[in-house]
Amino acid sequence: MVFAMLRTILCLALLTGVPGIAQQTGARDSNALVLNHVEKVGALANGVSATISGAAVEITALRPDVIRIRTGRNHMLPEDASWAVLPTARAARSEVEQDSTREAVGFHTAVLRVLLDRRSGMLRVTDLAGHLLQQDVRPVEYHGSSFRLYKSMQPDEHFFGLGDKTGPLDRRNQAFTDWNTDSFGFQESTDPIYKSIPFFISFNEGRALGVLFDNTFRSSFDFGKESANAYSFGAPDGPLDYYLFYGPTPRKVIETYAWLTGPTPLPPLWTLGFQQSRYSYYPESRVLAVAARLREDAIPADALYLDIDYQRENRPFTVDEVRFPHFAAMIQQLAKEHFHVVAITDLHIAHPPGAGYAPYDTGAAGDHFVKNPDGSTYVAPVWPGPAVFPDFTQAQTRAWWGTLYEGFYKDGIAGFWNDMNEPAVFKTPTKTMPDTVQHRIDEPGFKSRTATHLEIHNVFGMENTRATYEGLLKLKPNERPFVLTRASYAGGQRYSATWTGDNSSTWNHLRMTTPMLENLGLSGFGMSGADVGGFAGTPQPDLLTKWIQLAAFQPIDRDHTVKGSGDQEPWAHGISQESIRRHYIEERYRLMPYLYTAAEEMSRTGMPIVRALFLDFPNATPDGHPLDLDAGGEFLFGPDLLVAPSPYPDELDPYEVKLPPGDWYDYWTGQLAARVKSTSSRDAEQPQLVTPPDTQRTQAAREITVPPPEAKPLMVTPTLETLPVYVRGGAILPIQPLVQSTEDRPEGPLSLRVYVPEDGSASKCGGEVYLDDGISFAFRSGQFLRMSSTCEVVGNELHVHIGRHEGSFQPWWHDLRVEIYGWRSSASLATANNKPVAESSSGDSRFAFTFPDPGTGVELVVK
Predict the structure, then answer these.
(1) C-alpha dihedral over 848, 850, 856, 861, to 10 degrees?
(2) What is the CATH number of domain 606-728?
(3) pTM of the model
(4) Which of 182, 284, 320, 422 is catalytic?
């Protein structure tokens, strides 16, 4: 009875204590449908069902940590179909134990407890320890087809995700709209922009909850802007269908999101190399000249892009034979020089009936274009002039679209760029199709029906990339496709990489890049980038240099700019700037084994390459708030590198660097930069520095002042030459000799840089390297190499265990070079599998040893 009274008081307090919520509850329009009268409840093997105010409600457990909530008016649940969530995930079932009282009906799993209040119809979700994860603060309310859900917002709750929205990393106190929009010249307050990814992470006191609102209409999200104590989301139409999935760690939430919507496929290795682009490189001689200059100046590079001016009259799937008289031969010549060409193929098909333009003729013959309400083909102006648009909601249309790539694939083009696929339309105030345009859904798993553009708009770009990806797979079944898209929806990472769209050549846009990429990574798009140097405008020399530095530590490293802007290649602005830029691009190629290993992890688990700090260090502060809120523009590049650019990159003043708990080494020198102690009960506290005396230093390139342990922060004085990068103590970092492209075979040993942790524990010291042929799917049949290593201090000895080679793929190296950082023994004798090994030149490391790699494992002991 006491429990029931407390629950009633809680519900009333939540309803009346949220400014603006109670007032709205009491002043509804007469046509509103308020789901506050529970008429019937029933138990399901994996959840509960209910009828509330005439609406059907079903709450089910897909897994012990994943709950799905579906609601439909008029006693009917919405269609069980999704463009985002995989059929296997939606079909999953987890048995539950029912929890039914006079006051509430619900269930619990091994992880979560779900309760539906019988009096108000409001939902409450906790973990089994009673920690509140989500609580309705008012009943669901429909106004016609429109609906909105209001949830309580805790005082220290933070929100991340929603893809590449602008603004700070944390979404709290902001509101957003999901409506894919061509946003050339977007700024920090611009919304919406290119992608609609209705997924976010709630992070409160170190516990993470994922929320996926699977509705393709123009949905919106408010994280405390309307009310200080509530967040909300809703849509003007479509299904009320959302998923809650518990961590409690952010990493677990990310892995579950990948289970629901699919991870990013393992990309071709070359896509991780440096990419050079502009709007546009033409004629043919200009493309070849850029390639030649990259090789002459020894700037490593793997890809060149062709924007729309390679086409005849801007018509997709054509070539301007005046500008490119030897197109196929040019592609083949570039391939010999180890350049991969990426060609743009916008989705708008020119509309010249009777002109012999095959994409239009075959598309019209197959009835593949979207329609007006009267049944005529919708025609609108884009780059080629009047254009038509494939109806990608039809499986047969996607199959037809895929065939259009056959000629380009035969010519040797390696990747394709699907731009303008919001879809962008010219000469219209909405920048897109009219709401009334008709799409004919004919798709496995969906009921065949006609839908308006209001429903399909946000998935149009994703289905465009799906058609491209699946078409390329059909043409070359054993070659990994590369598709780059501007617009997408949740789950679109299954088909394409992405970038942040038409940014600008300003310092502010450089600063905005990191939170945009972090939130994209948290939203499934771990393979992402931003136009290096900025797309709109000509960057200042120092701005381009700093941007190239930062992009060396991002998944996609593409230098791209608009038509009419100044030169933006690495050699622009003179030798001194080029030298700095080359250095960072070279470092990216040295780190390629590490980067490719991180990409392979992403393809299995969904863990992004660029990571917010709280993703790997959720308990880095005593009260559980994300460390990122204190850490400026810092981010993790894979699991072991922390990149710490200035939070305001155009400022010259020293700035603080906040590091997570543990030892952190300067990547460039190998010296211990900071030791951050953790002593709280959560194994975490506000980072404080305990610094060995020999790490206080001043360098010519930059100055780091390491203070004594009474709590002054690590300070960095920015310079043009150096971007601060730190390595986690306990990391074993794979490094390769410098190459000019990923197709070059490195000459020399694979280096394993061992950064010994303070306590020398094997449980905190380890690393992995993954390798395969970089292009095919042969890794699925065992043709890969995975090698794991650990280290441990035993007495006065350091033991480095290098694991055997897993898989059948043969590596490029024959020898291993182990470099040891942070171990303070004065000894330098070593054995590898009990055979003496001589110390080799150590450079910045304390010790270095080179020896053959037998592939069966090596036990290196340094005494």
Answers:
(1) -40
(2) 2.60.40.1180
(3) 0.94
(4) 422
Q: One of 117, 302, 470, 502 is an active-site residue; which one?
A: 502
Which portions of the chain are predicted below pLDDT 70? 1-30, 679-713, 826-828, 841-845
Q: Enumerate residues 6+ apart whose C-beta is below 8 A from 626.
A: 158, 160, 170, 203, 612, 613, 614, 618
C-beta separation of 590 from 276 below 8 A: no
531 given a catalytic annotation: no
What fold characterizes domain 269-349+394-430+456-603?
TIM Barrel (3.20.20)
Cis peptide before 283 (omega within 30 of 0): yes
pLDDT at 11 (0 to 100): 42
CATH number assigned to the domain covering 732-862: 2.60.40.1180
Q: What is Dmax (Cα atoms) for the chain?
A: 87
Q: Where are the domains of the chain?
A: 2-261, 269-349+394-430+456-603, 606-728, 732-862
Are 665 and 822 in contact by the 8 Å Cβ rule? The answer is yes
The confidence score (pLDDT) of residue 30 equals 65
419 is catalytic: yes
Q: How far is CA 664 from the centre of its chain?
A: 25
Question: Three-class SS of residue 557?
Answer: strand
Active-site residue (options: 117, 157, 419, 518): 419
657 vs 817: CA distance, rounded Å: 31
From 147, 115, 138, select the one nearest 36 (Cα to Cα).
Answer: 138
Are the C-beta atoms of 861 and 829 separated by less than 8 Å?
Answer: no
Q: What is the pLDDT of residue 706?
A: 37
Class of domain 2-261: mainly beta
- Tokens 């999101």 label which residue? 257
| E strand segments, 638-759 | 641-643, 655-657, 662-666, 672-676, 697-698, 703-705, 714-717, 725-728, 732-735, 750-755
**Could you give the CA distance from residue 313 to residue 350 in angstroms, rounded to a whole number?**
9
Q: What is the pLDDT of residue 841?
A: 65
How many residues in total does the chain contain?
Answer: 863
d(CA 367, CA 149): 40
Helix (H) or strand (E) holding 30: none
**Same fold for the domain at 2-261 and the one at 269-349+394-430+456-603?**
no
The secondary structure of 801-841 as a DSSP string is EEPPPBSSPPPS-SEEEEEEES---S---EEETTEEE-B--
| Catalytic residue check, 422 | yes
Summarised one tens digit per residue, pLDDT across range 629-685 is: 999 999 999 999 999 999 999 999 999 999 999 999 999 999 999 998 774 444 433
CB 184 within 8 A of CB 146: no
Contact call for residues 348 and 388 (beta carbons, < 8 A): yes
Q: Distance (Å, rounded) from C-alpha 523 to C-alpha 162?
A: 6
The one-letter code for the residue type at 857 is G
Cα gap 581→705, rounded to integer Å: 26
Which pLDDT score, from 0 to 100, does residue 291 have? Answer: 98
What's residue 698's pLDDT? 29
